[in-house]
Automatic annotation (TrEMBL):
Lineage: Bacteria, Pseudomonadati, Pseudomonadota, Gammaproteobacteria, Enterobacterales
Family (UniProt): Belongs to the mandelate racemase/muconate lactonizing enzyme family.
Pathway stated in the Swiss-Prot or TrEMBL entry: Aromatic compound metabolism
Species this chain originates from: Serratia rhizosphaerae
Domain Mandelate racemase/muconate lactonizing enzyme C-terminal: 147-244
Names of required cofactors: Mn(2+)
Protein name: Muconate cycloisomerase
InterPro entries found in the cross-reference section: Chloromuconate_cycloisomerase, Enolase-like_C_sf, Enolase-like_N, Enolase_C-like, Mandel_Rmase/mucon_lact_enz_CS, Mandelate_racemase_C, Mandelate_racemase_N_dom
Pfam families: MR_MLE_C (PF13378), MR_MLE_N (PF02746)
UniProt superkingdom: Bacteria
Amino acid sequence: MTLCIERIESWLLDIPTIRPHKLSMATMGCQTLTIVRLTCAGGLVGWGEATTIGGLSYGPESPEGIKSAIDTYLAPLLTGQQFDGLTPLVNLMNASVKGNTFAKSALETAFLDAQGKALRQPLSTLLGGAQSRQLPVLWTLASGDTERDIAEGQRLLAEGRHNAFKLKIGARPLADDLRHTAAIVRALGADASIRVDVNQAWDAASAVRGMAALQEIGIDLVEQPVALWDRAALTQLSQRFTLPILADEAVADAHDGYALAAGGFRGAYALKIAKAGGPAQALKLAHVADAAGIALYGGTMLEGSIGSVASLHAWSTLKLAWGTEMFGPLLLKDDIIAEPLSFADGQVTLPDGPGLGIEVDEDKLRFYQRT
Ligand code: MUC
Ligand code: MG
C-alpha cells in the first residue's frame, strides 16, 4: 500500500471555552485549534491537529506560526511524496525544518490517519497495539475561584465523570495558592486524587517551601514547579521530597527524557504529542522513560477531539501510572467531530475504526474557521 500526498491544507479554528481556564501564565476564554487535512491521490483523507495554550504565552509556537510553518514550508516539502510508512516522512520534515514540533505533530497525525484508513487499522495498531480502550482521565479545576472550583469538582464527582482533579496554581502568591489548594483538598480529597500544576511559576526556593506545604496538605502529585530550563532544581526536588513530581514543560522529547533521567530525576514524565512532534515521537520519549524506570502520564495541550484522539491512540499502547488528562474536548463549547468522545466513570473510551476512528464535521470546521 503506497499513498501519494496530493494536497495539505490547514485552518485556524477559534472555539470558546465553557468557562475561563486560568493557568499561571494565561487565562483562556477561547481555544485556537490548527487543523490539517491531508488528501492523498485517490481521495483518501487524513486529519491532524496542533493546538497550544494562550497564543505565545505557554510555548514558542503560536497557532498562527504553526499554520505558517505548515503552509509555507512543510506542505510544499511533502506534497507529491509517496509513503507506505512514517519514518521517511519524519526524516524529510526534520532534515528541512528545525523545531516546530507542534506543526510536525499535526502532520504526523494526518499521515497515520491516512495510513490507518488505507490499511483498515486503527492508529493504536500502527503504534504497537492498544493494551486497553478505556483510559483514566482527570479534569482540571481552574476557574480562578475556589468556591466555583469546589462546586465544579463536587458536580463531576457526583456525575461519576472524573475521580481525579488537577488544580492550576502559581499565578497568585504562595500563601493564597496554599489556602486555595487546602480548601479543595478538604472538600474533595476524600473522594478524589488531587494534583497541582504550577506551570513553571516558582523559583527554586519557593518550590522547596511550596512542596513542603503541599505534602502536608495531602496533594498527590506536583507538576512542573520550576522553570523548564532548571533541570537541577527539578531533579533536587524529586530527590528531596516523597511527594512525586511530574516533569511537563521540562521534557518534550526523548533527548530531554534521557538527559533528565541520566541527571538523577526521580519523578514522572508528562507525554504530549505536540511537544514531541507527533504520536510516534512521543512514544520514543515513553520508551526512554520506561528504560529509566520513570512513570508516565498522558498529557494534553488542551487539544480538541482530533489531537486528543491521536494522543489516546498513542497512550493506549503504554502503561500509564498517572493516567491521562485528555479532557480537552470537554473544555470547549463545541466539537468538530460528528460523534464526540465518550467520558464516564473516570475514563475515556478510545474510538475504534480505521485511522483515528473519527469523522470530522466539515460544516463545523467552516463555522469556526478564522477568516
Ligand atoms: C499543562 O501544562 O499541563 C493541561 C491540562 C490543563 O488544564 O492545562 C494543560 C497544560
Ligand atoms: Mg502542565
